Amino acid sequence: MSKVTQLLLIRHGEVEERYHHVFGGRIDMELSARGHEQARVMAAYLKSRPVDALYVSPMKRARATAEPIARALLREAVIAPDLHEVDFGAWTGLHWDEIHPRHGVSAFAWLDEFAAGRIPDAERPDAYAARVGRGLQAVLREQQGRSAAIVCHGGVIRMMLALLLRQPLAEMAKVQIEYASLTRVALHGERAEAQLVNFTPWRDLA
Asked: Which residues contact 197 (CB under 8 A, 6 or more apart)?
């Protein structure tokens, strides 16, 4: 029987306040002070758990989150270039409240709009799926039968879940992925099992 592959999908910590409730996407923003603290709490949580490898999106907010985790695990964070956040096109930099006046749809419907290709100038859904799938498969090839942590983005985690669980991307709108949250997926051969979703060890922070 082949060994189980464990994926620990970690969203980056809270970003700078000026980007709260903003479609950040390709904007290479920094973490807030709280985001750095969330990353330290995640690192402490993971320190005593078996993690064989650590991967990270090339974006600043993901790399800053991965830094204390890498120190805690005594492992180098490997840059995963295909796992950067989705490009929101014309929505990039807009606050949630600006979406309906400008584009006539609710910001809360963003995943439906993106999956249907209705966000102007955004990354194409098929291209996004191919990119994230390429990055995911690279990790799975290298870490088969092992445990790998991936620090990336909410949109990327939703796409990876859609691919792993063989569900439409729009269905992942039902899954909450908070800042500095951990979602664990076990792969038994071709079968994926979500064992933990949106776990936030920092929840008790003041």
From this structure: 175, 176, 183
